Amino acid sequence: MNTVIHKAETRGHANHGWLNSHHTFSFANYYNPERMNFGVLRVLNDDTVSAGMGFGTHPHDNMEIVSIPLEGDLEHKDSMGNTAVIKEGDVQVMSAGTGVTHSEYNKNKDQQVKFLQIWVFPNKRNVTPRYDQISLKDIKVENKFYQVVSPHKGEQGVWVNQDAWFYLGNFEKGKADEYKIKKEGNGVYAFILEGEVEINGEKLSKRDGMGVWDTDAINVKASEDARVLLMEVPMSL
Fold it and tell me: What is its cofactor (predicted)?
């Protein structure tokens, strides 16, 4: 088993006034050759956007982009004709494929919005761009991991063009769950959204990250009430 630990305070940081962003991996003006990616997981940005502000229309191509709101409401518009609002308890996916432009704005004028912006390299290039979002309210369970992203259309959660699975877990203090790797050769990156946990004996706190590979499973135990995101991804680009 191999592991890498990224403590919250070691992440890249950019404060643009309207946007306060922490980068687990190299992004924009933050460059660390040892923090380029975890397998096909390329970007994990922890963004806070001020009231009424946001990302103006900009392009992407050949990237699977997953957004997970943690607080507030985020308004999405794109060149495919989609207009939507995502909020805490939702998950959004956009397959950029051959090319798409989009904007993401804080819909509210009186409160900030916090969300995770996650990029995954696709296993198919130049696909037709696609947008989807789901609510977690009907699939959320307590004290165990539940699937929110998969490679397969029709499975629980949204789907991406990659052999990747994302799971969320909300745990009470003392509760634990084992996550079994779904595809040989994949690794799993755990990101602690809230609280404190132990993963295979390693103690992790809010916004810490830990990547694990060359293993069949990991065990996550909550030292305090905790919320954890697991991202299983291929380790080879």
Answer: Fe cation
